[in-house]
Structures are given as C-alpha cells and as structure tokens.
TrEMBL record:
GO terms for biological process: fatty acid biosynthetic process. It comes from the Eukaryota. It comes from Alosa alosa. Belongs to the short-chain dehydrogenases/reductases (SDR) family. This is 3-ketoacyl-[acyl-carrier-protein] reductase beta subunit.
C-alpha cells in the first residue's frame, strides 16, 4: 500500500491548494479540518480516487491521537504531513482576551506539535517529510498580531529543533512562511494589521495565491536533501518590513 499525504487545514485556502497538488502527483490525500462536510467536499473534488476526509480539531490532543490511530488502522501509514490548520484573532495585545491568545497558540503552535508527534510514529521506521506553515510575521513581527506572530515564531523554532531530532531517521521537517495570501483568513483583514494598504507594501505588488504557496510546500516535501529550512513565499514582503 502506498503511503498517505495528510493535510491538516486541507478543506480551504492554502491547505486545499496543497491537497490539490499532492493529488495531481498521484498521492492519496487525507484532508482534515474541524468541519467534516467541508473536508469531504474538498476530498471528493481532488483528482484521482479514494481520497479521505476526516474531522479533527488540532488543538485537542485526544482528537489528534484518535485521528492518527484511525488513519493507521483504516488507510495506511503517513509519508507526508502538512500542517496548514491555523487561525488568527488579530488586535492590539491590550485589547486581546487571554482566551483568544490561548486559542491561537493552541491551534497554530501546539496543534502542529501534536500532529507531528502523532505522525512520527508512522514515519520513524520508514522516513517521511513534514512541512509546517508559518508566516512572515513570525520572522518580522506585526503590530496587532502578537499572539499570531508568537505562534508562528514558535513554529520556526519547533521546526528546526524537530528537524535535528529526526534527521537520523530520514524524516525531514521544513517550514513555509507565506506573506499575504488570498484566502478566507485575509478576506477580513483588519486595518491595524495591514489590511487595506498591505498591497502597496509588497514588492511584487499583489497578494499571493494559495497555489503559489502550495508549490513551495510540494518542493520541500519532495526535496530529499533539505531539512530545517524556512522558505518565505511573500512576494518580497520581508524586504519591506
Ligand atoms: P483558511 O482560514 O483559509 O483555512 C484554514 C484551514 O484550517 C481550514 O481548513 C480550517 O478548517 C482549518 N482549521 C482551523 N482551525 C482548525 C483546528 N483547530 N483544527 C483543524 N483544522 C482547523 O486559512 P489559510 O489557508 O489562509 O491559512 C492556512 C495556514 O497558512 C494557516 O496556518 C495560516 O496561519 C497560514 N498563513 C496564511 C496566510 C494568509 O495570508 N492567508 C499568511 C501566512 C500564513 P475548519 O475551520 O473547518 O477547521
């Protein structure tokens, strides 16, 4: 049985674009989000047959554990893992509720750590590749995004550390850090985090498309001699921040 590609946050946006490219490559994809119907709708629209849709909240350890047990039991072992599940709760720190800070950290940082931890059980014997989705604001910071940028900066440190831990077992771990990408997440971007004027600050002069990020994710998944790297896909935004 060939090995699976598991995409958290695969129902929409960047994750859906990644799932699409993987399916085009002939991979069998497991599309995961909290909303089962949305994951199902994405999975059935992918090219190729027998893709899988599952519901799981990445911030909940037991759900993540059960999801990987179900994958292993019913569908096979995991070869690729992509962590594209993420949320934002933007606002200046003084106006952000501690509950919202916790939700962002639990989903974006803890969630990816939990899925990696669970997937490694499948990968350590046979090798594998993981791509986490960070953000340019994890490197540069952004007013109005303290929790979000902290979660993404944390993902970078986590990615490099895990890459060191598992390299000897032929598991590679990399991070793609997008800038502003046209998805549901940026549709309602607040002015104070760069909405409105954001486009004029991007050297390439436009928001990116999910497919443009997906290409970088696929490149890292398929590059057997790259690990512990951070790849910016931001239209040059980091040069202007
Ligand atoms: P979208 O809002 O379009 O999609 C987010 C995806 O994550 C959905 O599939 C959503 O499904 C899923 N998701 C959210 N919370 C959870 C959860 N707790 N458990 C499981 N799945 C969850 O976002 P994008 O595609 O824009 O973002 C994808 C990733 O890229 C995120 O990590 C984001 O931070 C990052 N990113 C995005 C940028 C952008 O400009 N769009 C820029 C930089 C980074 P559901 O709600 O059903 O769970």
């Amino acid at each position: 049985m060939s090995r699976l590609s598991v995409v958290f946050g695969g129902s929409r946006g960047i994750g859906r674009a990644v799932a699409g490219l993987l399916a085009q490559r002939g991979q069998r994809v497991v599309v995961i989000s909290r909303n089962q119907e949305a994951a199902q709708a994405t999975a059935v629209a992918l090219p190729g047959a027998e893709h899988v849709a599952l519901s799981c909240d990445v911030s909940k350890e037991q759900e993540v554990q059960k999801t990987f047990e179900a994958i292993q039991k019913n569908y096979g072992t995991v070869g690729y893992l992509v962590n594209a599940a993420g949320i934002n709760r933007d606002g200046l720190l003084l106006r952000t509720r501690p509950d919202d800070i916790a939700s962002v950290l639990h989903t974006n940082l803890l969630g990816s750590m939990l899925t990696c931890r669970a997937a490694l059980r499948s990968m350590l014997g046979k090798g594998g590749a993981i791509v986490n989705i960070g953000s340019v604001v994890g490197l540069k910071g952004n007013a109005g995004q303290c929790a979000y940028s902290a979660s993404k900066a944390g993902l970078e440190g986590f990615t490099r550390s895990l890459a060191k831990e598992v390299a000897s077992r032929n598991v590679r771990v990399n991070l793609v850090a997008p800038g502003f990408i046209r998805t549901d997440m940026t549709a309602g971007l607040q002015e104070e985090v760069g909405g409105g004027g954001a486009q004029t600050r991007i050297p390439l002069g436009r928001f990116g498309e999910p497919e443009e990020v997906a290409k970088a994710v696929l490149f890292l998944l398929e590059s057997p001699y790259i690990t512990g790297q951070v790849l910016l896909v931001d239209g040059g935004l980091q040069l202007a921040m």
